[in-house]
Request: fold
Amino acid sequence: MIELATALAEEACCLGIEALPGGEGAVMLRGTAHRFGDDINTDYIISGKYKFKTLDMDELARHVMEDLDPRFYERLQPGDFVVAGRNFGCGSSREQAPLALIHAKVGGVIAASFARIFYRNAVNTGLPVIECDTSGICQGDVLEVDLGGGDVHDITRGLRVQARPLPPFMQRILTDGGLVAHIKKHGGFCLDG
Amino acid sequence: MGKTIAEKILSNHCGQEVRAGDLVLADVDFVMSQDGTSPLAIKAFNEMGGGKVFDPSKVAMVIDHSAPSPNEGTSNLHKLMREFAREQGIILYDIGEGVCHQLLPERGHVLPGDLVVGADSHTCTYGAIGAFSTGVGSTDLAAALMTGKMWFKVPESIRIVCKGRLPDGTFSKDLALYLAGKLTADGATYMSCEFGGDAVERLSVDARFTLCNMAVEMGAKAGIIEPGGEVLAWVRERATRRFRPVFADDGTYANVLEYDVSRLAPQVARPHQVDNVCDVGDVSHVEIHQAFIGTCTNGRLEDLRAAASVVEGRKVHPDVRLIVAPASRRILFDAMREGVLQTLVQAGAAVVVPGCGPCVGTHNGVPADGEVVISTANRNFKGRMGNSAAQVYLASPATVAASAIFGRITDPRKLL
Reply:
């Protein structure tokens, strides 16, 4: 059965990216910070008025964050980061939220904390989610994120912040390439070892 | 050593004794998705090589959020759901049957002691009858469809004790909004909220659904009430299988919060956050253009009765549209039979198809730029109702009905 002792510590406080399995070869992401506040809900990430109509995620991506910043998608460069405060992704369970961010070519979301359904959805779909103190990161800062070491480097400000590690089982899902690939590989959930 | 309700239910579903913090792979009793989440779940299920669902009698898909379809894109996604349901032999609730979170308990699919996942964040509603139920995304749901299992971290629990008798004119919605204001939007993140105390024990079944429905607005994974009061009798009328109710016993809580609600005033959540809560008197100057009564929070018979008792013999203000969406076809029937619907329509209400109505901004009453809406829904995020230039306030059915009569946010105690 599952080795519970080695299982998730605290879902709430273990969010973030730890060393990618295998250990070798750090995965570095680099991009500009787009700063948002606390309680960014999934309606803001992608509005209900679009998501019921289509499975075309590239189409949804054009409307990402539209109600908060109508020009967000235009200004976004591939690999840029969404940086937010507490409770990112609260509200609806829509998986279109992480998918729209992925298809908008957002490199990852860095937040002080995440709402639980969004966090699961992000890992399941392969969107990097990094939990750390974001209070020192400002709009337009250039960031480098080491997904291996869990280190967020604000190059503009010369600031380094350590991210909280991803729980081991979620790390395994991410390593397998998301939940679809995990299930295909193991024929079901594989929680042990 | 005692256990919380969450620990007991998860233990019962994974074949071992587990506690907060443990990771479990648990068998689920029922799996649900709706028209905003099913299409992606079907796609993920097929990509996983899903084949047949684990047990078609334990799976329902509900077309409720954008139903009947307002455009061809949505129609094609609804068609995909109907075809999948036919191929798999699962339960499909098509347009007009009602909101998923009313249908699952109403049709006896969810029972006390159950473990349920749904691809909708308000799946926490079924805690009202003592189930542990929680929202997941479409890919998690696809894995549950295929395997009949889901992984969980057993959550810590917060015990929320509400003491005293809710005053006349104040309802479980006011209690839910009050608690959302106190706990804030992430005050219970990752936790199970166990609601108790004599104020909660006195709540009707309908009122319990309203309270547990809003647990996710405090960030909670689940909101649960011990299945006392009228609950077991209510469930027995509907149950199609055996069930095992679960009660708390001296468990370990992360926190115990106590509130005296005996002097609670009707509550209102102001734009654009659910936890931006105040007494109704603080916003009684606000003029409104649209009033909406319905949703998985407040579209039940008791809610429609409360609204009808407020508007009876009165007329909706000429500058206000009042929209009513019963939460299910059965509720619509009952409201017709009792004359509740007639009272609402005579007062000027526009009744729409049982379902989610205008809650998610796809149809049935998208507000114009600069308009103000007061709604019985659970979310008032900017743009939630389809227009980011509108403002949405949340309140109980009685407060919404009273506001519709006066054209401004109104304390319902004036009319009851």
